[in-house]
Amino acid sequence: MLTECQDFSTMKIEAGTVCRYPREDHTLRWVMTPKTVALFALGLLLLSATIWLARSKPSSLPTWRQAPVAVDGVLDLTGWDFERDGEVRLGGEWEFYWNELLAADDFADPAVISRRTVGNVPNIWSDYAIEGQKLPGFGYATYRLNIKLNDAEQELALKIPMLSTSCAVMVNGILVARCGQVSEQPEDAIAQYNPQIVRFHADHEQLEIIVQISNYLYNSGGMWYALDLGTERQVEALHDIGLGFDMIMFGTFLFMGLHHIFIYIQRRKGKTALLFGIGCLIGATRLLFVGELFILKLFPNTGIPVIAAAGYITYCGGVLIFVLYLRRLYPNEFSQRVAQAVTIVSGLFVLLELFTPLHFYSDIIIYFHLFMLLVCLLLLRSAWLAVQRGRDGARWQVFGIAFFIAMFVLDIGVTTFYISTNVQYTLVSYILNRQLVLLGLFVLVFVQTIVLSQRYSSAFRTIENMSEKLIAQNKMKDEFLTNTSHELITPLHGVMNMSQSMLEGARGHLNAEQRHDLSVIVSVSRRLTNLIHDILDFSKLKNNEIVLHKREVSLQAMMRINLEVFQHLIGDKPLRIELRLPDELPMVYADENRLQQILYNLLGNAIKFTEAGSIVVAAASVGNMLEVRVTDTGIGIPADKQQLIFQSFEQVGAPVSQEYGGAGLGLSIARRLVELNGGQLTVASEAGKGSTFTFTVPISKGTTGEYAADALPLEREQLALHSVPLPTGAKEADCTNTILAVDDDPTNQQVMLNILAGEPYRIVTARSGEEALRLLDGPDSFDLLILDVMMPGMTGYETAREVRERLSLTELPILLVTVKNNPEDLLGGFSAGANDFLNKPFHAYELRARVRTLLEMKNAAEIAVQSELDFLRAQIKPHFLYNALSTIIGICPRDPKEASRLLKQLSFYLRGSFDFRNYEKFVSIRKELELVEAYCSIEKARFKERLRIIYAVDGAIHTLIPPMTVQPLVENAIRHGVTKRMDGGTVTVTVRRRQDAVEIIVEDDGVGITQERLPELLAEYREQSGVGLYNIHQRLKKMYGVGLRIDSAAGRGTKVSLRIPLDSEVTSDHAEGSVD
């Protein structure tokens, strides 16, 4: 809150009040800085230019084309071109006929012409004298002006301002405009302002303009303003400029006034903004009733008395508000007596304007002008005094008030003494014929805006500095509290966990006394831990730092999940917890985590103060609220203490506190959390008979527990089966994994869909655990299950247990999403089969990271299995199948039996290659040799006498070997060894025992391998198809520590050998299931 201090040399801070910065004595002195010199030089220049323009003659302005002046009722425009030189103001000497309303035909009478006099326009006729007698303010008269044009046949226009209270304008004898009704009798005259633009055709080089005027309202009649003559475009532009000027100022004043009034509404202590806002609104209102009289465009029938009264009242009221404003702004420099005098005089004139005739108060307004001039001089003196005392903004005030005084004096001269007659053809003539005081007011308001903005900025800087200090101190307090709490919690957890492990026998047998002491340590540690958590929550509630994340929550699911935790709190007490929750219990709209905390506090309180008996949790719908009751059979609460228990750090009494412990924060926190969720917490109790705590929470609109758990409507089921749309430009094939997201809240589902929408995943949603199990039993295969814990019907834990009975941890990882992050909750989730946890509310990047990690884990497991399968199947090459089938087809016509035998061998070979039901790491050596024989039979049919196979196998050996180990070696010997020679060759397969190992040798007498190429055969980067020697070599090294051994020379064949250790354990474990 910003307010003004009586002494700005000090700073006083009270509740919500901010004053100015403290100033040192040396800053209060006036210092002529370059900025100050420039400011006063600018003001002096503006004032000098205004005086010069006001006093300038036509010859003084060479750049402004001088228009002729009417002389003796004639205006000579024969040398004036409207298109070239612009419009003309019809000022000067007009013919004047007092107490006569004449038309064009009347001037043919010489007697009428003989009564003519000449009067200056614009002016008031009370300044005229006929036969030495001044004319009265009331009456009627005719003005006549003859204009000589430079050309005939012109389209011209007249801008007719507020000529008088009633008028009629005639051009060449034709009535072109009327304002009100001109009459010789006051009772027949109708006063009405009607500024307008009239258009006419000048068909002669001579124009006669006759203006009839009658006035019975003001004490000063006459032609107050001059007409403007020019083309239609020029006259309309002149009108639009004036109207636009008024509207710009009106909008500026209105906006600034409302802005500062709203500032005051928000901070009611200082009235500076209020006074400034009211002053701006008064200025905006005045603009509607002066100048182009915009009020007549809104309300055309507005009478002259209303317009005049509004103009004078806003004038007097504006003066009063401005003086009061400056008095508030600089209370030590502006005299209270001056403010009181202005209040009295302004109030008196306002009353006169309200309750006296127009001609009376309009005649004495000159005295208010003089009083206002005196007040302005006093304000200027006070502003200068404020400058000398170093008040912020005082220099601007001097400039603004001085400019306002200058404009005010000129305005009085124009409107009262009609000095514009002397300057109407200068550059400033247009400005002087406006309400100059409005221009001065505009500058003055602009200055006040600068001053107030400086004050607000200064106050805001003070507030910011203080706020930064307070925030820093509060942050230090919070950090101290947090750090201290963490420092306390860490050793407390260590003490509690070590004591608990000793109670469970980790350090050996304990006697009864030791067990009792350790139980006390665990209990006290748990109490201290809960106390620290309560203090942190209490601090957050006190500072309104608790942010609720409301959603649909099932109270049934929450109670079922937390029941085991509450049972753990009971310990050895003969207590039972009963849940009396109807199946049709509606969902509630609350923060799930805080609702759980409320129940935890209430049930924990009931368990603590109940030694035996029961604790009943019941719920029922009451209107649009769900009423939850926690009833215990504990010690009860006396009637005079029932409201006291909800206060912070309060319990029923000192004996209770000593016996049961605690800090008295649990119920206070529970009540605040209930209220934040939109409910109320009450208690009904009787000492010695137990207590019933009842709290309410809003019911979620549109769903109930039964509806959400059991009866999913068709549209929801269809929604659940729909996957999220793929990102723009993505294809179904781009989706690398399929995710099943299970959550009963459609909003949470949509959140997960949106977060994962940019990832290459296909996402399927489900609304319950039952539906998720149905989808898992369906045809779709899923790579990840995202499972919400808190769901109606089957909870997330129960769903996870069902999934784990069907699929392993690597086959379908499970990510549990929950607001519960207690160690007991995490343990329960991992026990149910979860792979990972994600706490609500979560960040998008955290969900994506955990999903990506689990999918990579599953993909890595699949890749490991798939690589094994690829290894086993890689030797099945298209060209081998093609050659084998071609050979069989060629044999079939001449030897069907041989073709049949070969087909059987091929089928056996293929069946052996693809028969990996158990993905075994070992097979019997006999099975591997059968696969070799089947392969060799097919190859011998192709190459006939060019290929010879010799088996040297010890039949007593029944060890196990890695699958697909020997067959690729034989294939390599046939393809790259013997068949490369024109006359073929021999491949020898040897299996024999060598001490504690089985040696397998595949030897050929083919083309051999050069010594340079031998190292490349076992290199990883070597391009190859099929299993390859490198893959076999690596598998053997991984299993046995020794890989393949290759001996070869160009033209001498190749010998590949390997050794399989005789491992009795491996043999016994796998022989039964692997040997046919």
Spell out the blueprint of helices and strands.
Elements: H1 34-55, E1 74-77, H2 82-85, E2 88-89, E3 92-98, H3 110-113, E4 117-121, E5 129-130, E6 133-134, E7 139-149, E8 154-160, E9 166-171, E10 174-179, E11 196-202, E12 206-215, E13 228-230, H4 232-266, H5 272-288, H6 295-298, H7 304-329, H8 336-355, H9 358-388, H10 394-416, H11 429-432, H12 436-503, H13 512-542, E14 550-553, H14 555-570, E15 575-580, E16 586-591, H15 592-608, E17 613-622, E18 625-632, H16 654-660, H17 666-676, E19 681-686, E20 690-704, H18 705-710, H19 714-721, E21 737-742, H20 746-756, E22 761-766, H21 769-777, E23 784-788, H22 796-804, E24 814-818, H23 823-832, E25 836-839, H24 844-873, H25 878-891, H26 896-914, E26 923-924, H27 925-943, E27 947-953, E28 960-961, H28 966-976, E29 985-994, E30 997-1004, H29 1014-1017, H30 1028-1040, E31 1045-1048, E32 1054-1061, H31 1064-1074
Parallel strand pairs: 1-7, 15-17, 21-22, 21-23, 23-24, 24-25, 27-29
Antiparallel strand pairs: 2-13, 3-4, 3-7, 5-6, 7-12, 8-11, 8-13, 9-10, 9-12, 14-16, 16-20, 17-18, 18-20, 19-20, 26-28, 29-30, 30-32, 31-32
